[in-house]
Amino acid sequence: MSEIRGFHAHVYYDADTKPKAAQLRDTITGKFKVEPGAFSDEPRGPRPISQFNVIFENSEFQSIVPWLMLNREGLDVLVHPLTESSYDDHSKNALWLAPRCRCGLRSCGRNIARACCRLPNGGRPTEFVQAGRLRLRSISHLVLAP
């Protein structure tokens, strides 16, 4: 089993959304214990579009990631662990905060957690996200990862 030595959060932007990205970066660096990366306006490495990243320790995950879920201002964010396998970190071990699939959320109404997310033992979604053990099995069924 790989050891997680920390995390990166990559925030993607384009020319129109760069001011929003800059404001988000300023807020993140002021609010959390992170090491900010520079803005990269040109494609670099596996990232085909403009981005900046922040590096943070494992203990900050439970604060930063839920905050980004609610405050990313519509920007796409890739969160990944830092292990010995950069390839796995950016692919199978990555977490996207972005509208990547079409979900039929209208059928869930306002109380989406109760209507669409069936959690074992009546738990709340935030308990499992904070523990880092939540994975999506299907669009409307969340289960604990082994």
Structure characterization notes:
This protein is α+β, with helices and mostly antiparallel strands and about 150 residues long. The protein folds into 2 domains: about 5-95, DOPA-like domains (Alpha-Beta Plaits, 2-Layer Sandwich), CATH 3.30.70.1240; about 105-145, no CATH class. It contains 5 helices and 7 strands; from the N terminus they run βαββαβαβααββ. The strands form 2 sheets. It has a 5-stranded antiparallel β-sheet with strand order 2-3-1-4-5, covered by helices on one side. The chain has a two-stranded antiparallel ribbon with strand order 6-7. A hairpin with a 2-residue loop joins strand 6 and strand 7. It starts with 6 loop residues before the first strand and ends with a strand. Residues about 105-145 have low confidence and may be disordered.
